[in-house]
Every structure is written in C-alpha cells, then in structure tokens.
Write a structure and sequence with these properties.
By secondary structure, the chain is α/β, with parallel strands linked by helices. It has two domains: about 1-195, HUPs (Rossmann fold); about 225-295, Uridine Diphospho-n-acetylenolpyruvylglucosamine Reductase, domain 3 (2-Layer Sandwich), CATH 3.30.465. Helices cover about 50% and strands about 15% of the residues. It contains eleven helices and ten strands. The strands form two sheets. The protein has a six-stranded mixed β-sheet. Strands 7-10-9-8 form a four-stranded antiparallel β-sheet. Strand 9 and strand 10 (about 295) form a beta hairpin. The chain is elongated and about 70 Å long. About 30% of the residues are buried.
C-alpha cells in the first residue's frame, strides 16, 4: 500500500511537469529506466501511445531489446524495432546518436524521448568544457526539429528510476553508462558528485540558469528575426550588434543545411568584414562575397 501510494504521488507530480506534444506519441524506448518511466507516464496521461526501440547491434543490445519487449508487454503497447548500422569512426557515442536521429526523424508521429533534468545538467557541463555560447549552456532543448520532443526535462533521473521500479517495469541498465572512456560518464560519475558536495541544490541552480539564458536567447532571436531577409547584405552584418549579426549568420548556415559552428560563423565574419573574399565552410561549400551580399554556395 505504501509503495502504491508513493507511485501515485510520483505520477501525479510528474504529470504536472510533463510537456507532451499533441497527437499520437511514439515513445523511444531504450529498455532503460528513464524511457520505461516515460512510456508509463504517457499511458497514464491517457494519450494514444506506441513504442519504438532502436537496436544498435552492440554487446548490450540483446539485453536492452528483451527489456524493451517485456516493458511493452507489461504496458500492453505495441513495439516497433529498428536495427541500425553504426558504421566506423572515432566516436561510437556520436555514431550511435546520429543513427538514432536518422530513425527518429523518419517517424510520422511526434517522438518523445526519456531525457531527464540530469541529462540536461550533464550536457550543460559538456558544452561548457568544450567551449560554447549561451545556447549551449541551456542544456538539452525541449524540441529537436522536425519531430523529437523531450518532455521530461523537469523530472530527475532518480524520480524516473523510482517510478519504473514501483510500476514493476523490467528495465535494465545499459553497461555503456559505466564506460569511463566516455566524457558524459566521467562527468556523471566523477565531476557531478563533487559539484553536488559544494552545492546540494546544484541541479536546481543550473536549471534556473538555463531558464534565464533561454529567456534572453528568445528575446535576442526575436530581435534578429526583424532583420531576417532572403539575401544577406554585408553592410547589415557588420553594422548590427554582434549578438544579432551572429544569429543571422547562424540562420544562414541552417538554411544552407550546414551545421552552424563558432568556426564557420567566424569564417563568414571574415568575408562579411572584407578580410577575405571566400572561406571554405564544409564539404565543398563556401561563403563568398557577391557585390554587397554574403552568399553560401
């Protein structure tokens, strides 16, 4: 009875903090506790729910796939499995993430993933260590175009694990989460415990910081949008405040289907300011000065 009451309290609180998109939901179910809890909460919300599982063909994949299948059975939901080929490259973590995104972007309904507040805090620190602007210090965005939503960013990993356990969901832990060669795991297991000793309310404090930065970024984005044009005059770039000009350059890269990075924006500045006529951006794409305009070709 105590466990049932505790689960009811957890669910009631979580549903108030859950930001589910409209329409049918496709829950990305890894087989771990976070996504199991999300699947459970989605069903408790009364929404139409389907489950998808991505098999990365790694050592732990069979155990995770079995867990996902058993969780789906426990919840009485259909499970669709996608198998991906990670190929070769220097970063297994990045290849796995890219493979997941390719699958999720092909799903017709809104996809929801089990990212928690803890994941967002870890991402803030990763971005800070690597070097980032204000946008990177927000952590994990609630929405990734075109269809991926992270509705549990106000809910902690401890809460999702407790919910999944009390609900009797047969989740398993991915052994990759203990791999200390991965930056995220070193931050999670070594750095964050030390920071939480300095401030036991660290996660809440970082969430407040992210919220403040998000408000500032939204305001600057709105100001920059007033100057958005089909073509990009170099005079506009060099005369606007840099915070706004950088946003125009960022948007120009996105429109050209080039991932915006600090280095690429700096290369565009070099051409806009007249320091160079052309700068390479990526995979044969360049930014050039065409008369009074900045162009990506």
């Amino acid at each position: 009875m105590v466990a049932t009451r505790r689960l009811s309290d957890l669910v009631a609180t979580a549903l108030q903090e859950l930001h589910l998109p409209e329409g049918r939901l496709a829950v990305a179910l890894s087989g771990g506790a976070d996504s199991a809890a999300l699947a459970f909460l989605a069903t408790e919300s009364g929404r139409e729910v389907g489950l998808i599982h991505i098999d990365h063909q790694l050592n732990a994949s069979p155990a995770l796939a079995r867990a996902a299948d058993e969780i789906a059975g426990k919840l009485g939901l259909d499970l669709e499995v996608f198998t991906v080929d990670l190929g070769s490259g220097p970063s297994l973590e990045e290849r796995a993430r890219d493979a997941r995104h390719r699958v999720l972007e092909g799903i017709e309904s809104a996809v929801v993933t089990g990212h928690t507040r803890d994941d967002s805090v870890e991402t803030m620190l990763i971005n800070l260590i690597r070097g980032t602007g204000a946008r990177g210090l927000i952590g994990i965005p609630r929405f990734r175009p075109p269809n991926v939503h992270r509705p549990m960013l106000a809910i902690t990993r401890g809460e999702t694990r407790e919910m999944a356990t009390l609900a009797g969901l047969p989740f398993v832990d991915d052994p990759m989460n203990e791999d200390m060669s991965l930056t995220r795991n070193r931050i999670r297991l070594l750095i964050l415990p030390l920071l939480r000793e300095l401030n036991p309310q660290l996660d809440s404090a970082m969430a407040r910081t992210a919220g403040t930065l998000a408000s500032d970024i939204d305001f600057l984005d709105q100001l920059a949008a007033r100057h958005q044009t089909a073509q990009l005059p170099t005079s506009l770039v060099v005369t606007l405040p840099k915070a706004l000009a950088n946003r125009l350059l960022h948007e120009a890269l996105v429109t050209a289907a080039i991932a915006p990075t600090a280095d690429r924006i700096a290369r565009m500045w070099s051409v806009a300011s007249g320091d160079s006529q052309r700068q390479d951006l990526a995979e044969g794409r360049s930014v050039v000065r065409r008369g009074a305009l900045l162009a990506i070709e």
